[in-house]
Predict the structure.
Amino acid sequence: MIDFIRGQLISISLIIFILGLIYQVIQFFRLTKKKEWVYPPVEVKSEKKTAGKWVSLCLASLNGTMWKTDPQMTVMTSIFHVLLIAVPIFLLGHNMLLHQSWAVSLWSLPESVTDILTLVVVICVAFFLARRLFLARVRAITGLYDYVILLIALAPFLTGYLAYRQWFNYDTVITLHILAGEVMLITIPFTKLGHMLFFFLYRFFIGSEYSFAKGARAWS
Amino acid sequence: MPNQEVKPVDTKRIKEMLDRRKAKMKRYLSYCAHCSLCAESCFLYTEHHKDPQYMPSYKAINSLGKLYRKRGKVDRKLLTEMKGIVWRNCVLCGRCYCPIGIHIPSMISFARTILRSQDIYPQLDEVSSESWL
């Protein structure tokens, strides 16, 4: 079982993750169609701005956003999502394994830095858990599924931290770390963790008041 | 006015309607992160002392979400509860914001369509226990 978790299950989980995401992208383009008419109808050239004017316009654009309505959540969720991707990719241990397997690796952050950043991720998850437990409006739409997904997001980071520190039995903890990562990869395309992909598809491709880009597609 | 209480619920018709829009609606429901960031964008929520029942995600999950979870096998009592959610708690103003880009008004509108198919809709001469707004 342990050999399976440390061996074939890694490949299986990566394949499911990649094929699952490809399937969701194909389904998205199959279920939507290009709009015949996209607003604005003509390209509007923006006037030249000074640096100061540009900065004040950027700050003013935050007025109607989450930054004003819920600044704590905006900060925590932004930090969480950046570190969720950055920490595993630029972790020295992961890059050493990549180099051993495929003779390629990315640039790595110092271990002391990734140690602290992992703790930051755990603190962010604790913040999200506290929201679910103590904020009435979040509690109203929270179920067991939400706690499980939070655990799936937390597990790779917590077990990775414990493994790096060599707290408890290392072999057990590292196996749990690998398993936690595999579970996360497998569940991403098929659960609400898929917002990793759908955030970009919906906000950039589907036309609406809140589209980031032109939003040239619509549901058919 | 048709009597909304007597006719049995046509669960087969509800299931057909749910299946027709399953691809889009189920995706919306499953990718909802349950973050509640849509709450502040609803003026009904802010004006009703931040009552979670007026939150866009709560409305969608407890109307259309319930219909999909029960696969259309619902009774008239549940549909009447949903009537309050989709007509009393929402005016389909379209102001609701979702960070993931889920279009909540289309879900509420679809739930209304399903309720209307079962002759459940707000009646102007109805005596309600509380005002509609």
